[in-house]
Request: fold
Amino acid sequence: MWLASLLACNPAGKADERLAQGLPEQAVPLYADADELTDAQRQRYARALLQTDAVEGARRQLDQVATLDATGLLVRGALHARAGELKSALTDFEAGYALSPMPELAHDICTTRLALDDEPIPACTRSVEVNPQSALAYAALAEAAARSGADQAAREALAAAVGHLDAEPQAAAWVAEGWRRVGEDGAACDLYALAQTVDIGLACLAEGQVARAIDVLEPLGDTDQRAAAGMLRARVEGVEVLGASAAKAIAIERAARWDRRLVDSQDAQVLYDRGRLARADGEALAAETLWRQAVTEAPCTVEPWLALIDGAQRRGQPTEPLFSEALAACSVPFFQQVVETRARQVDPPAQRE
Reply:
């Protein structure tokens, strides 16, 4: 009872309580009203200020403390990170963790090592160990694993992250990005209800979930080039399923809006989709010109090569020179496999014999 009475008339004590409850916006005015703060309280005040984006206020509070504890080092490290001083941030986070193994510090060490590309896997593994219910911690470990080529370990970490997204829905975008990194577009699209990001929209598009992709990408397309490119592809796919009709003319104009948005883009995928739109509008020669430009810009983009080959085949022209040109242009194994498979479909061995 006496402790409750003490806290009731002690703004700093009440501020500590609010901060511990995850309410920094309520803690800040209470710290400000306190007549006197201990060094520990001043560092917690700095943390509350940082969490409410009062960066200079946080810095001023730390300047009044001679020796920082783990909380102070957490705040100073975060200030360094905001300034782009990642090595200094890492030094502070690791010094703070040595004083007190706070889960937040473990996560900050992990993410800073990721940003520096400096042996992140051990740090991110430790972060998961001390944050076993954190989707963000698992997402960070997944990124570290995927970067090292350990895709299966990344998938396991991402699956664990999904299990904790209810508590940390803000991690959904990072988890979706991770699923895309390991080639799991379906799993990324499944997070559609939790986050509306370009990666999730593009994942849905890759999975053939065009209506869902449009829902995500269209609001983002006016300011984001990747989203606009996704919208062009989505609209072109809508055009290609329509026969000659007023509906097709409307669909072409909807796609053309995104083509105009990307008028300066020389991205190979955009050029390929622009060519598809031209072909759907009856401009076969313009389409092939765009596909040829696409393979010049990015020789390992397989779709425009296949479109050029299909065009030659439709006209009854020999396709073998195009297959040879494509295989000479790009030595990536997946590209070679796709082109060789198409070559066998166009000219089966039995026919050549």
